[in-house]
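re: ur question from yesterday

yeah so i grabbed the chain u mentioned. its 830 aa long if i counted rite. heres the sequnce exactly as i have it in my notes:
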Amino acid sequence: MRTLGRELRFAVRALRKQPAFSAIVVLTLGLGIGANTAIFSLLDQVLLRRLPVQDPQQLVLLDGPGPFQGRTMNAQTFSYPMYRDFRDRTKVFSGVLGRMATPVTLTFNGQAERVNAELVTGNFFDVLGVRPALGRVLNASDDGAPGANPVVVLSYGYWTRRFGGDPTVLDQTLSINGHPMTIVGVSARGFEGVQVGSPPDVMVPVSMKAQMTPTWDDLSDRRSRWLTVMARLAPGVTRERAAAQMNVVYRQILEEEVATLPKTTSQSFRQRFVAKHLDVLPGARGLSDLRSEFNTPLIVLMCMVGVVLLIACANIANLLLARAASRQREVSIRLALGAGRRRIVMQQLSESLVLALTGAGAGLLFATWTGSALLAALPGDGASRGLHAGPDARVVLFAFALAVITALVFSVMPSLHATRTPVSGALKEEAGNVAGGSRQARVRGALVVAQVALSMVLLSGAALFARSLFNLKSVDPGFTIDHLVTFSIDPSLSGYDTPRSRTLFQRLQAELASLPGVRSVSMAELGPLTGNNWSMTVKVDGYAAKENEDLNPNVDGIGAGYFSTMGVPLVAGREFTAADDAGSPHVAVVNETMAHYFFGSSNPIGRRIWFGRDRNIDIQIVGVVKDTRSLSLKKDAVRFVYIPYTQDPNLGPLTFYVRAAAGPATPAAAVRDAVHRIDPSLPMYDMKTMTAQVDDSLFVDRMVAALSVAFGALATLLAALGLYGVISYAVARRTREIGIRMALGAERTRVLWLVLREAAVLAGIGIVAGLGAAMLLVRYVQAQLYGLSATDPRTLVAAAAVLGVIALLAGYVPARRATAIDPMLALRTE
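ran it thru and got these structure tokens back, copy pasting raw so excuse formatting
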């Protein structure tokens, strides 16, 4: 350790004597390590990190995929009665918990806001092993009679943000959805629930569900799946054993439930329903809506920044080789005086380690800035709300471990090269040795070829992702996005029942329509490109359903004038008007895909459909509209049924759409004032232009395209600098030769081409090798592309052309300098 400390101190002194060299290396490393650290931080939070609970490896997630009739809120959900069956009828788990996230309106000291709540079973904290930071957490006694436990636990983050960490909040009363609730505790610091990226602000007993979701209860309904179920394995029980025993119990439960299905349910469906299999999945990393969406993009970006770091290492190795050439005499003297080669290598490695650790520190700053920029670009109320950009212990450890590995990678070759220097040649200061020799020239040339090849791979990927994003931005969504403002409100969370909500929405529509510059206003229960989805089983007049056929079109409740406001063309019939209210006959509008699927070339106007479990609501089709890409710009139009929101018996939030007549959209302040005039206690959320909504729906594609272009540009810059350094090095080595050529009458253009040809050869070899590698590797990102092939020749050729031009420009500068060499000065160099 004493020797290492001495070597590090010597390295610091040596590097301080060359501040320009040190600054360039640290900056290059800072960019490479910082980019890797920023992406790793997100990848760690989304894909790798375990929940901060007791023994997370013992947690499992239950999932029962397969045929079902009834309401399903999300994947991997069960009814509350089935959760209780799991909890009470098995011994392979030491505990079974349930939870569901839902937005609520929280009012404290007269100030209302929309927050994220989590309905949890009384044993939620006990099963996870999470203790309170203040007061108490929920327990089994809070799972009493429905509505009898008005208590709430604040998350640590919300407690510090909203209440300033005030310990006196215990036993105080706040209001959630208009219901008084008593604060009984604050959860542990660092615990952000089991849904990664979506931390709850408050946690409420599941027995309060009717108060938290006022438009639907379903606490005792076996045909309503809304509860996520996790469990902790009992001591000595493996996941495989738990799955085997749980499926016996699951089969018994399904056999009991199949008797509750409608009598019209086919025997085939009943058999498939009972034969369903219960999956017992690993639960250590919790739940995540981000994981499936970000899995491939984050891995692709991690590979890209890894390549950037390799290019940076090659560039720094080139710099160190040039530095080693200038220090050949120093090294030779030390060797001649008896210094061992191991000592020389240690000294070189020490310098590299100092540079790498300093670069890691700079990289952490760069990673924090990059991560903050990424998170700022994420949709504000999405599943990424709980992610953070600040480096924690894991990220810092990753950065410095990467720095040590990087130091070894870029310093081994220069260190070994320095110890192989011929002592006698260096001491005689022969020109060839001082310049570094042809062997070093070949090594540096090989490093540049590798840099260009890796840059070619990154540029190819960047070009493909950029073109894919361009294709997506060019897709016609089927509605007009210009001059359109959208926002949402949910009066049901502020004590409004369905009739009062309908009246409020109609008043607000009229108020907004009267604003100056507003052309039209309408609303929808879900709205396009919001990430929300609602489907229902439908029976169609005159249509004979096939066995196992999917009869679940997408549904949305909309307001009067919705299609004209959104710019969706009407194909046949009419759209909804104010007369289509709760007391009028039930009507629907279908899109072209729905009409063609069920009616073929026949006219659907006047035909009837039925929704619901009992199918006792007769709905008449009154219109057909053009298809829209409501779910995603990447997906083709699906079957869609639109109903008047006024005829939805369980009316919750609505999203408003305000179309401006011309010029910029109506200012947000005017819209807020209109809502405030009607009811100042109603929280508004998700207010944005429709252009921003489209951009939010393409966030993953925009992120991948922007970062891949940035990484490709950085890699190309590093490769160009490396090529510039090699050509400059070659010009320095051949100064005497160039002087002789010019003294013998060689034209400057010939000398220019002589030097530029070397740059072209190195770049050409690198581009060809990179193209081959790119065509092999880009196939793995085909699923991330839209509207083009991963081996699209025009894109790859364009990337190669860009890199070739930049490489020639990098070689042109030293080549141009070579033509300005004075032959007399060149002949005196030796």
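noticed a couple things. The mean pLDDT is 83. also The CA atoms of residues 134 and 167 lie 7 Å apart.
anyway ttyl
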